Amino acid sequence: MPELIAPSVRVHTSFLAAMAEFQAEGRGGPGDHSSVGREIREYGPRWADPAVFADFAASLRAEADVSIPVPEGWVHSTTLWYVGGDEYLGRVALRHHLTPQLTEVGGHVGYDVRPSARRRGYATEMTRQVLAIAAGLGIERALITCDADNVASRRVIEANGGVWEDQRGETLRFWAPTAKIQSV
Q1: What is the pLDDT of residue 132?
Q2: DSSP per-residue letters across the chain
Q3: 152 vs 114: CA distance, rounded Å
Q4: Residue 84 needs a FRET pair 20 to 30 A away by CA distance; which of 24, 101, 126, 170 works?
Q5: Average of pLDDT values for 158-183?
Q6: What is the DSSP letter of 115?
């Protein structure tokens, strides 16, 4: 059964294969403002080096440490990888607070499932589990957003109790409960 883990060198080879899948579908270009897109641009050419990958995984883990200051406009976040054994399946990020920008686009929770692992319920399960973590951080309701045309993501959000609030531009905004996680 897959599990959420802190970013780890254990899945290095599988992670590289997953990032290649994302790149094959067009992720990582200048218009891709997602975490995966940004990381592909920043680390992609260097991830194969085990030392660079170890530093990358450590930097993701450090983003959750509230004793470490974050750059202006950023918030602390907990990034977890969804893995089955040593197979990287996806990621989920929990932003500890909302900035004005995250309130419009981004929200508390973001997730990606590698293309070859989609349509198996992994995004729904990752979101369910991270909402429990959000409750532990004192977040009573988590804002989760998706593109208006992303039907699959909307289903993930709604399966986790997300209640539609509004649409801002091309972004749909939902609030999901965290204290009482529903079984999915």
Answers
A1: 96
A2: --EEE---GGGHHHHHHHHHHHHHTTTTSTT--SHHHHHHHHHTTTTTSHHHHHHHHHHHHHTT-TTS---TT---EEEEEEEETTEEEEEEEEESS--HHHHHTTBSEEEEE-GGG-SSSHHHHHHHHHHHHHHHTT-SEEEEEEETT-HHHHHHHHHTT-EEEEEETTEEEEEEESSSPPP-
A3: 14
A4: 24
A5: 88
A6: G
